[in-house]
């Protein structure tokens, strides 16, 4: 596949969109990759990292191995993801703390449109497809009701495991890596490490991510090759169930004290805007949800026109 510099800039921009999605709990970078038309290539390129590649590097040199890896594509994509995560971490942290309803509304619209898009990729619906979709939705909903497993002071070993699990979710369309980090209780420590440039923690999480990515991409590629419709049905169900997590209006049931001695929400449940204690910001919330929804539909149309 012959590409020009302009093509790689576009791939980097898609990487930035993936990175932006992955910073937010509940939104999947894999979904962005799927919609922007680079998902299959991404999965195939990651799967190329194996012992055979290192043999090629040793026997035939760096240039041949780089080409076999599809290195230019991966480099452009991960540069985009890295730029986005580093530059947006502080902004997302600020919005989560100060404008949560508006932020969640935008991403709720984004994820809602993603459900429609991914479900449309299922070519053949049957009883098993519907069953695994329902099971996926129930499992995801149950997960969203769980409390974080650990507090903010996490060991480096835990951060390594969290990085490995999160990256597995990040490459799945519909499952958010940041959402998995929230469930594990590792989201805020990692976000703080990026904001504070804590290189030790970032490196450990990154190493875990590499290990998780290389092992899981092969499993995922096999599932897509052999059971694509069922895999997509499970993912669709998972996104439907996980919508509870990103519902903009929450009621705090219990609080906890964080490492700075501040009272922060611990256990929350979704409520209707009319039952929300405070300014529901309903008009702006609906507008931002509509923008998020339209953005995904727009990306889908662009991808369809290109194909």
List the helices and strands and how they pair.
Blueprint lengths: L4 H19 L5 H7 L3 H9 L3 H10 L1 H8 L1 H28 L1 H21 L6 H18 L11 H15 L6 H8 L2 H9 L3 H48 L3 E8 L5 E8 L11 H25 L1
Antiparallel strand pairs: 1-2
Helix pairs in contact: 1-2, 1-6, 3-12, 4-5, 6-7, 6-11, 7-12, 7-13, 8-12, 9-10, 9-12
Description:
The chain is mainly α and 307 residues long. The chain contains 13 helices and 2 strands; from the N terminus they run ααααααααααααββα. The protein has helices at 5-23, 29-35, 39-47, 51-60, 62-69, 71-98, 100-120, 127-144, 156-170, 177-184, 187-195, 199-246, 282-306, and strands at residues 250-257, 263-270. It has a two-stranded antiparallel ribbon. The protein is globular.
Spans of 5+ residues with little confidence (pLDDT < 50)? none
Strand fraction equals 5-15%
Calculate the mean pLDDT score and round it: 82
Q: How large is the radius of gyration?
A: 20 Å
Q: Structural class of the secondary structure composition?
A: mainly alpha
Order of helices and strands: HHHHHHHHHHHHEEH
**What is the spatial order of strands in the main beta sheet?**
1-2
The total of helices stands at: 13
Number of extended strands: 2
Report the end-to-end length measured between terminal Cα atoms: 15 Å
Largest sheet: 2 strands, antiparallel
Estimate percent helicity: over 70%
Taken from the alpha-carbon principal axes, the silhouette is globular
Notable characteristics:
single chain, 307 residues, mainly alpha, 2 strands, 5% strand, globular
